[in-house]
Amino acid sequence: MSANIVKISPGFEEIMPEDYRNLVKDGPYGRGLDVDKLGTFKELIEEHPLCAGCGLALSLRLILASLPNPEDTVIVGTTGCNSLSFSQVAIHNIHSLFGNQNAVATGLKRALKIRFPQKAKDVVVIGGDGGIGDIGLGMVMHSWFRREKITTIMLDNESYSNTGGQESGMSCEGAVLNMAPTGKKFPKISLPEIARDAGCVYSATITPASPKRLGKVVKQAILIARELGPTYVQIYCPCPTNYKFKPQESLKRAKEKEKDGSYPIKEYLSPPAKEFVEGLEVVNKPR
Amino acid sequence: MQKVDYPVLAGPEGYLSPSAASMGVVLPDEGEALVEGRIVPEEEAMEKIAEKLLSAKNPFFFPGPLILWAWNEKAVEKAKAVKEMTEVVPAKIIPMPDYRPKYPTINPREEINPNHPNLTIWHNKIDVCVFIGVHCHYANLALKIVRGGTNCYTIALCGEYGHEDAMITLRDVHTEKVRQLTEVIKRAKAERKGRR
Ligand code: SF4
Fold this sequence. Notes:
The complex is a heterodimer of chains A (287) and B (196). In chain A, helix 2 (55-66) packs across helix 7 and helix 3 (101-115) packs parallel to helix 5. Chain A is globular and about 65 Å long. Helices cover 37% and strands 12% of the residues of chain A. Chain A has helices spanning 18-26, 55-66, 101-115, 129-135, 137-145, 191-198, 211-227, 240-243, 250-259, 271-284, and strands at residues 73-77, 93-95, 122-128, 151-156, 202-206, 231-236, 267-269. Chain B contains six helices and seven strands; from the N terminus they run E-E-H-E-H-H-E-H-E-H-E-E-H. Chain B is an alpha/beta fold and 196 residues long. In chain B, helix 1 packs across helix 6 (175-195) and helix 3 (73-88) packs parallel to helix 6 (175-195). The longest helix of chain B has 21 residues, at 175-195. A seven-stranded mixed beta sheet of chain B has the order 2-1-7-6-5-3-4, with helices on both faces. At the A-B interface, loops of A face helix 3 of B. Residues 50-51, 54, 56, 81, 157, 161-162, 239-242 of chain A line the site of iron/sulfur cluster.
């Protein structure tokens, strides 16, 4: 049934707005595409209201191009800059109250399992560091404790950017922001390790400066969650507006932080997840 | 005749008009329909829909995702029947492919959106419209905004229990009932022709 979501009923093709016709003709649904194919298909997000040079926007574009099964995916979001772009995303998405996203995703995942027992329906939480690392942390961690088969992706811009720049738990120690003028007094939360210890079978950090790797991490996080249990991906998303650098320097900044280790790239796999990923690599190896 | 405390009439009723349900309008039972807040037999409502559509200057159908997308055979069949009805009237079609608010704005010539349906109605000068295949909560939202801000006469052909906020609503509208209504429109059209 799901592939038919993107087929227009006969007789109505001509009256559909061009954007929708193009999505049906050239969209990524049912095609197993990847970030290296960007530019060759109609993307799931093409316009958004985020600032120029926003790391969230780029990461979101890369995430959407890496979904293994976009027509069978539901994204659950929460308050934050990134949520403003979701009305432009051509995929099922739900906006939850601030911090509730992993509880909503849990209910949704369980309901989909009952409704479509034979189908793989991926539920992916995408939120900011405020929603996932601070305000929603309780719900996030309890979904991990319960081993819910959902993927949680944090778009980590290291601040509350949407409300003018307050420090978040994910801001680095000493970070100075509009509304944290004396600098943050304690270190960044080590969420990838907390995720691992709380039951995530896969936990990784990445930046959009490595787009292919980002695509691979997102894809395998979703596939592992489908089979084994909760997974967590944390993406560094530079925010030029609140960290006060030029929009065109966003990627450079991500690259530098990746290189000098100030945004450490990590990957934890449980033994079953490791075995699963090795299996995937064998399947995907070019013959 | 049933007394209607709150007649559901074409607007503009003003910003934040109350929902008809909150004013005491209740949904019809099987075999019944609502006309301007009054419960009537379904056949009477069908005649009224035909009259409204045939006397409209600029009637439009707003098909929603439930029929625009080929989810299953039932959806495709119903879509076919709706298309035939629009041709019989004849009425133009503006689709509601999904419910994304798409800020800052949609193109009101190309699509209608439950979050700002008034734009589509104003821009296209629509005096009678039909909602069909729109999920309940979005139909409710759009119908209320239309009644609040425009003078368009709204008809909701609902697959479930109907919509109090439409001026006319039929319930349980599946393919067969769409075809039945098309026949009523055809007959009314022939009668109007005969009278002229
Ligand atoms: S404030 Fe920062 S995170 Fe928010 S949209 Fe602008 S650049 Fe992106």
